[in-house]
């Protein structure tokens, strides 16, 4: 019971936490053969491990996460409504090497059963049937997939078919897959389906009830790769894509998602399951949640002007900050660095007003950023505001222009007076008469 209560509290806290910056660590004693990989905390959004998370990879059947997402969001989706397998869907998958459902043309199953066939058993004919049903054509459905990718900000993703068959234009990234999978898991039907190990397809018009199984061996206790804390999400494989796996695992109120693309295809050894399990164990054994900042203690203070009440205001974090850090992390290596454009603010200040941010730094790396807010109202003084307005008026850039113009006028005026005086003196010099020397007056006294 205490663990459940703690989990609920953490869930509430994390719902209101800012998304944290990626912070990667190097796992010891683990060799990751995957071409691209990520291990992400679903509690905080922090990246504990990454390997080329933004390179282009071929998704194989990981593509079907998007297919099922669009199925569930379609206005046509009715879990109980019947849908019949078509010859077109079967023809499209023929010879591609994709897994097929063995449904017969005209065989009717519920739309919910179709969803399980696509997500759990990764059946290519059922993925094409979904595309035709919910998109009216495969091409239109692929356009819908790409539109949804753009809507979700999957800038490194493009779809060319709904099955995940190899195509140079059918690609994604580990980062994009993390965004897509976390989005898809918000839908409870999706979450339930991808976490199901065995599912019974109801009796159809052509076949008795049958049971289908998940392709994720981490979930299946009958396999050698079983990991009791693993749940969902989707497997994928083509020779070009390699072995791929998106999965989640939860233990002791900690939740992670592991994404692996391009694991080697070796007979008798499924590296995507082995390496996912190793990364989960590494995370569960070496990391823990640490509360670094709460909303009850001030982080810093900045000055306040235009108020007689206060000379400064204390700043608090807008929301609590909890981070997944190594269990043996030294608290002295965790610091909070405030950032604000000005060292003071002008009143009025409102309670809850964001006045800056603070970087959370661990071992010289920024692991997150939080807003800093005021926890009180501070009123503005009218008298100080008037004085400030007058001062700002006379020191504004417009007044500076006026001052320059006035200075130029004064300089011009002084120059003009100097010019006039100079001309006047020159004119006076021209008025002085020259008295020539008269020889007739020689000798006269």
Distinctive features:
445 residues, alpha+beta, six-stranded mixed sheet, 11 helices, Peptidoglycan synthesis regulatory factor (PBP3), Domain 2, Beta-lactamase, 19 strands, 3 domains
Describe the protein:
The chain contains 11 helices and 19 strands. With 445 residues, the protein is of the alpha+beta class. The protein folds into 3 domains: 271 residues, DD-peptidase/beta-lactamase superfamily (Beta-lactamase); 87 residues, Peptidoglycan synthesis regulatory factor (PBP3), Domain 2, CATH 2.60.410.10; 35 residues. Strand 18 and strand 19 form a beta hairpin. It is elongated and about 125 Å long. It starts with a helix and ends in a 14-residue tail after the last helix. 37% of the residues are buried. The N terminus is likely disordered.
List strands and helices in order, with pairings.
Blueprint: H1 2-15, E1 36-41, E2 47-51, H2 64-73, E3 82-84, H3 87-93, E4 108-110, H4 111-119, H5 124-135, H6 138-151, H7 174-184, H8 188-194, E5 198-201, E6 210-213, E7 230-238, E8 242-251, E9 254-263, E10 265-266, E11 269-270, H9 271-286, E12 287-293, E13 300-305, E14 312-317, E15 321-326, E16 334-339, E17 344-346, E18 354-362, E19 365-374, H10 382-394, H11 397-431
Parallel strand pairs: 13-17
Antiparallel strand pairs: 1-2, 1-9, 3-4, 5-6, 7-8, 8-9, 10-11, 12-15, 13-14, 14-19, 16-18, 18-19
Helix pairs in contact: 2-5, 3-5, 4-5, 5-6
